[in-house]
TrEMBL record, chain A:
GO cellular component terms, semicolon-separated: plasma membrane
Organism: Saccharothrix ecbatanensis
Xref: SUPFAM superfamilies: MetI-like
Spans traversing the lipid bilayer: 21-42, 82-103, 115-136, 273-298
Top-rank taxon, per record: Bacteria
Main location per the UniProt record: membrane
Biological processes annotated in GO: transmembrane transport
UniProt lineage: Bacteria, Bacillati, Actinomycetota, Actinomycetes, Pseudonocardiales
Cellular location(s): Cell membrane
Cell membrane recorded as keyword: yes
Protein name: Cellobiose transport system permease protein
Keyword list, A-Z: Cell membrane, Membrane, Transmembrane, Transmembrane helix, Transport
Membrane topology: Multi-pass membrane protein
From TrEMBL, chain B:
UniProt record similarity statement: Belongs to the binding-protein-dependent transport system permease family.
Keyword check for Membrane: yes
Membrane topology of the entry: Multi-pass membrane protein
Region (Disordered): 1-20
Sorted UniProt keywords: Cell membrane, Membrane, Transmembrane, Transmembrane helix, Transport
Compartment(s): Cell membrane
Name the UniProt record assigns to this protein: Cellobiose transport system permease protein
TM helices/strands, residue ranges: 29-48, 94-114, 126-146, 152-174, 201-226, 258-279
GO (cellular component) term, any one: plasma membrane
Domain ABC transmembrane type-1: 90-279
Length: 304, 294
């Protein structure tokens, strides 16, 4: 009798317990991940503004049509997003390659150096942006002071498109270079030295070895870094939001308003939920396209 | 975000040391000089934040700028806690990050154990679903999520920040990869023979074996939860902030009191900095093994 009960419990355990263990993930994800995701598509086809009492009217693709054909702010935000993506992703990868190359030696205090380059990555984006905004201040910022030492004059970093994008890109690159450098370093250490020795015998310089051996050997990691950097950099929001006094408009002339920030403005300042949801979908589509293109570009690294 | 690399489980047998490879180039003085310059650049903004937070407000505007810490750090810290809700913000952030960390580690080890070591119908299909959901950008769902929280009456409360963070696809994936290599099937079979239920196996065998990987996942989850900005900004009002949204409120005010703002930024960085100084080696190791995504 007792063994029978244990036998049955055992069968239950084998058959159903696994589902119980994975259930919390799937339940929570379904409610707070998947459902909102699908619902965004529905909301994006509605005229739905919280300020109108949250009444929802189905309007089909009107939000999309308006965004794409009649909203210069949207195109401005998309342009800024692309510009910032380029200004952040490319230097991030190049600097990371350089830093990894430096770290790929028999260093004393190896852990110290590795932790040092990762330090920026652990700091919060809010803190980083506030600190950099101060460093990039017009009148009393450290960077303008240094420029002044070389008689280069003062730059009103927030005011222009190019200057504000440079400043924001500096924050992003500063924060992420070390992370990518460590990914590259791990793979560099797996390249056998015999390859380099052979190249040296053939008279290849250090520079040639780096571009002809190291970089091609790192291709999978460069692709990986490019893809995740692109996914992250296409949705910059905190940096432009907290950089200076512009707030959700990203500067007085929206000179550094990104698409993610425009989504935030439409959704949580104008409370135009339908319109903001359409921005969300267009941003995701743009991100998929750009990620695909940068994947293809990174894949073109020669592997000879 | 996608994890393209096949992550190595930390604690998996180390790759064989390549003997002879260690004849790697010896670093010369220029390498050290360059690295120290990189390090200085990495540390400078954090150091600068500390410098400003130890000065009086009038010193911040001086030309040339003051480059060494002054003696007003504690006075400024006191001002941050007197003039703002920063104590509440710290408390909220501790609760949010602590709860999310415990929950992610618990549910990820549980689900990772099931996916790696238990057999059930639909296992590979469901695992594929977990991997696919990693690529989902959360921003896309932010508006319906906010509407849901309003309907639940949770908007403005910290459980609105906690609940969506209780599980992550990445955590499940990460722990599954680890268990596949780190927990031998023989050990679990032996436990079965002794009549252990799967829950007891989990508790007595799997969870203790998970410690190194669970620690890395926990550290990483804590740092991400602590630093999270967008969702708390959307769902919490300025009166009930986390550290990051409190910083945003401080920075967007009309005040130009940078000593106050940067002191708050410094205080808000201390918890992750402490975690990093204690466990930096493990975190660096996790990233170098390709196991921790950005």
């Amino acid at each position: 009798m007792k063994t029978d009960w244990r036998e049955r419990r055992h069968r239950w355990d084998i058959r159903y317990a696994p589902y119980a263990y994975i259930a919390p993930y799937f339940l929570l994800f379904a409610v707070f991940g998947l459902f909102p995701l699908l619902y965004t598509a529905w909301v994006s086809m509605q005229d739905r503004n919280l300020l109108d009492g949250d009444a929802a009217t189905f309007i089909g693709l009107d939000n999309y049509v308006e965004l794409l054909t009649a909203d210069p702010h949207f195109w401005n935000a998309m342009g800024n997003t692309l510009s910032l993506w380029l200004f952040t992703t490319v230097p991030q990868i190049l600097f990371a390659l350089g830093v990894a190359q430096l770290l790929n030696r028999r260093l004393r205090g190896r852990t110290f150096f590795r932790m040092g380059v990762l330090l920026p990555n652990i700091t919060s984006v809010a803190a980083v942006t506030i600190i950099f905004a101060q460093l990039f201040g017009r009148d009393f910022g450290m960077i303008n002071w240094v420029l002044g030492l070389f008689d280069l004059g003062k730059i009103d970093w927030q005011a222009g498109t190019g200057s504000s994008h440079t400043a924001i890109a500096a924050m992003v690159v500063w924060r992420w270079t070390g992370y990518h450098a460590l990914i590259f370093l791990a793979s560099m250490q797996a390249i056998p030295t015999s390859v380099y020795e052979a190249a040296r015998l053939d008279g290849a310089s250090g520079w040639q070895q780096f571009w002809r051996i190291t970089v091609p050997m790192l291709r999978p990691q460069i692709i990986f870094s490019t893809v995740i950097a692109t996914a992250g950099n296409m949705r910059l929001l905190a940096e432009p939001l907290l950089f200076g006094a512009g707030g959700e408009t990203g500067g007085s002339d929206r000179q550094f308003q990104t698409a993610a920030l425009y989504l935030y403005e439409q959704g949580f300042k104008q409370f135009d939920f339908g319109y903001a949801s359409a921005v969300a979908w267009l941003l995701v589509i743009a991100t998929v396209v750009i990620t695909g293109l940068s994947y293809l570009a990174a894949r073109r690294i020669r592997t000879d | 975000m996608t994890t393209v690399l096949e992550p190595l489980a930390p604690g998996a047998p180390p790759q064989p040391r390549r003997r002879g490879v260690m004849r790697m180039r010896m670093p010369g003085p220029w390498t050290y000089a360059a690295l120290i310059a990189v390090l200085a650049g990495s540390a400078f903004p954090v150091y600068w934040s500390l410098v400003v937070s130890s000065q009086t407000p009038d010193k911040v505007d001086s030309v040339p700028p003051v480059l060494v810490p002054g003696g007003h750090l504690f006075a400024n810290i006191a001002r941050v806690f007197d003039q703002t809700d920063f104590a509440l913000a710290m408390m909220n952030s501790v609760i949010v990050s602590g709860t999310i960390t415990v929950s992610v580690v618990l549910f990820s080890t549980l689900a990772g154990f099931a996916f790696a070591k238990l057999k059930f119908r639909g296992r590979s299909g469901l695992m594929l679903l977990v991997v696919a959901t990693q690529a989902v950008p959360t921003e896309l769902g932010v508006i319906p999520l906010f509407m849901m929280m309003s309907d639940f009456g949770w908007a403005g409360e910290i459980h609105a920040v906690i609940v969506p963070g209780l599980v992550t696809a990445f955590g499940v994936f990460f722990m599954r990869q680890y268990f596949e290599r780190a927990v031998p099937d023989e050990l679990l079979e032996a436990g079965r023979m002794d009549g252990c239920s799967s829950l007891r196996l989990y508790w007595n065998v799997v969870l203790p074996a998970a410690r190194p990987a669970a620690a890395v996942l926990g550290l990483f989850t804590f740092m991400q939860a602590w630093n999270d900005f967008f969702w708390p900004l959307v769902v919490l009002p300025p009166e009930n902030p986390t550290v990051q949204t409190a910083l945003s409120t401080l920075a967007s005010g009309y005040t130009t009191d940078y000593t106050l703002v940067l002191t708050a930024a410094t205080i808000g960085t201390v918890p992750v900095l402490a975690v990093f100084l204690l466990f930096g080696r493990q975190i660096v190791g996790g990233i170098m093994q390709g196991a921790l995504k950005g």
